[in-house]
């Protein structure tokens, strides 16, 4: 599938996820399955999206733990990662450029989940997460407000991440 077709497919999937009648069905809160998250975060994840959220969370945990083998396995080969006005257009490009530095930054950081919403429709799901990262930079505490959107696609082996958009700012 070429880049234009992939982009159109993702745009269509996101549009369908927003207006899909499946989204109108009763949802079981993700917070019910993760009591610790419920106590400190606003979580809205219907049962249909729980497996996709688990993959997103596994990706983030693996990145923070420096498990780049798992990080690579959870990304689709043609993943598109957007961050700070830049783009990495494949798993190979991300793994060869920013994966190691992202893992190094996250290794000593504490991630506090603030809000998470996810939806699934057909073979696509999206996960939107707002969190606060607490880290050290030059020996001084650093707090970063972070937002993350992931789009995942269901394949025979499970969910794979086909798009990530990260945005962050330091808290003053």
UniProtKB/TrEMBL annotation:
It comes from the Bacteria. It holds the Pfam family SnoaL_3. Residues 54-167 form the SnoaL-like domain. Residues 1-24 form the signal peptide. The keyword Signal applies. InterPro entries: NTF2-like_dom_sf, SnoaL-like. Keywords: Signal. Gene3D superfamilies: 3.10.450.50. The keyword Coiled coil does not apply. This is Nuclear transport factor 2 family protein. It comes from Luteimonas marina.
